[in-house]
Design a protein that fits this description.
Elements: E1 3-11, E2 17-24, E3 29-33, H1 40-55, H2 63-70, H3 80-100, H4 105-108, E4 117-125, H5 128-140, E5 145-150, E6 172-173, E7 178-181, H6 183-201, E8 206-210, H7 217-227, E9 234-236, H8 246-253, E10 258-260, H9 271-275, E11 281-282, H10 291-304, E12 308-309, H11 319-331, E13 338-339, H12 347-350, E14 351-352, E15 355-358, E16 361-364, E17 373-374, H13 376-380, E18 387-388, E19 391-394, E20 399-400
The chain binds 2-keto-3-deoxygluconate and magnesium ion.
The site of 2-keto-3-deoxygluconate (KDG) has 10 residues, from loops.
Length: 402
């Protein structure tokens, strides 16, 4: 088999998605997600100008070799733009392999290790009262695991909380808008919130929280310690994680499980975290973490150290990524949980999907390969609209992590 053509489809059904389609001389094609929120066109340019020309004529079955061609073969290693492009190529190649062997992706990864995929949803309210109601709504829909985010008294913009009645979506049209943040108010509020949530719903639901990189190591340690009585499934991104050693302080002060990695790109971002057992869940998703080929290695390494996966699954990752993640989660032994933020209906006009949610779990069907398709005509009806993630400032005006 030979790769004859490849193209990038940039479409905005409600939000921007970048999809790579690789075609072969046998008429089989594969899809890969190449969406990097707010940096879509950078990935498009890298794919179109540098990767696609080099792919033409290659044998799509040589997935490992092609992965290394674009990773190790390139002098400028790493980085979110290039790894997102590599992820898309890799996903599309696995999709082609599954279709050519007429088997679902999970079979190529070792076959089923489980029948259903535990997912967590988001409950987010403008204040504690509304958040507590939202948690109840999610529990009544069958969710066994709920991420709890709330507006914080005295803070204008808490992460993860919608400003209107539409589903939470942080990227807004045009250049980045600015938000403001106060860590002290957040740290004082959060344990009180979780006390109330546990008081109302008891221990029989998994609770998660995303600090979204906004604490220093010692603040993260305080937060993890003060949340300990509420038995979180995980505390996500207490610190930015650029400095892996900073997670030591948190670990030494608390038994609250820690999840990190949604902005990481390679295994080299985690080696200290994994080998020193400083985290419990690894969040790097297929779409930004080098695709299936690389994430198999990350998951294998993590499994040695009792660390499970908990892939990022926000709406800015496309249905192609979600389906591929569900196959991956079906196959590996050290799966932990999958984030599930349903896409808006309009997204499914462009992408036809092969997965479903039912009573707290997700299921992927047996279609060959990844099993998601794209309607290119529909995609063209929704042209790209520039949108950016916010920029964050402390109340005194200092730039801070968003
Ligand atoms: O594009 C950024 C979002 O994907 C991110 O803010 C979502 O942190 C996130 C999460 O845990 O879903
Ligand atoms: Mg997150």
């Amino acid at each position: 088999m030979k790769i004859t053509e490849a193209k990038v489809i940039l479409s905005c059904p409600g939000r921007n998605f970048v999809t790579l389609k690789i075609m072969t001389d046998e008429g089989i094609y594969g899809l890969g997600d190449a969406t990097l929120n707010g940096m879509e066109k950078a990935v498009v340019a890298y794919l179109e100008n540098y990767c696609i020309p080099a792919l033409i004529g290659k044998d799509p079955c040589r997935i490992e070799d092609i992965w290394h061609y674009f990773y190790r073969g390139v002098y400028w290693l790493r980085g979110s733009v290039s790894l997102t492009a590599i992820s898309a190529i890799d996903m599309a190649l696995w999709d082609i392999k599954g279709k050519s062997l007429n088997t679902p992706l999970y079979n190529l990864l070792g076959g089923k290790s489980r029948d259903r995929i535990l997912v967590y949803c988001h409950a987010n309210g403008k204040d504690a009262e509304e958040t507590i109601d939202k948690v109840g709504e999610k529990i009544s829909k069958g969710f066994r695991a709920v991420r709890v985010q709330s507006g914080v008294p005295g803070i204008e913009d808490a992460y993860g909380v919608p400003k209107d009645d539409r589903p939470y979506e942080p990227a807004a049209k045009g250049l980045a808008h600015e938000e403001t943040w106060d860590t002290t108010k957040y740290l004082n509020f959060l344990p009180l919130l979780f006390r109330k949530v546990r008081d109302v719903y008891g221990e029989n639901v998994h609770l998660l929280h995303d600090a979204h990189h906004r604490c220093t190591p010692v603040e993260g340690a305080r937060l993890a310690k003060e949340l300990e009585p509420f038995h979180l499934f995980w505390l996500e991104d207490p610190v930015t994680g650029e400095l892996q050693e900073s997670l030591r302080l948190i670990r030494h002060h608390s038994t609250t499980p820690i999840a990190i990695g949604e902005v990481y790109n390679t295994i080299f971002d985690h080696t200290t975290l994994i080998t020193e057992q400083l985290i419990d869940y690894i969040r790097m998703p297929l779409v930004h973490g080098g695709g299936i080929t690389h994430m198999l290695k990350v998951a294998a390494m993590a499994s040695v150290y009792h660390i499970n996966t908990g892939f990022h699954g926000a709406t800015d990752l496309s249905p192609v990524n979600l389906a591929a993640a569900l196959h991956f989660n079906t196959a590996i032994n050290n799966f932990g949980i999958q984030e599930y933020m349903p896409h808006q209906d309009i997204v499914h006009e462009v992408f036809s999907i092969n997965y479903r949610y039912d009573d707290g779990f997700m299921f992927v069907d047996d279609s060959p390969g990844i099993g998601v398709d794209i309607d290119e005509k529909k995609a063209a009806e929704y042209p790209y609209e520039m949108a950016s993630l916010p920029v964050n400032r402390k109340t005194d005006g200092t730039i801070f992590y968003w």
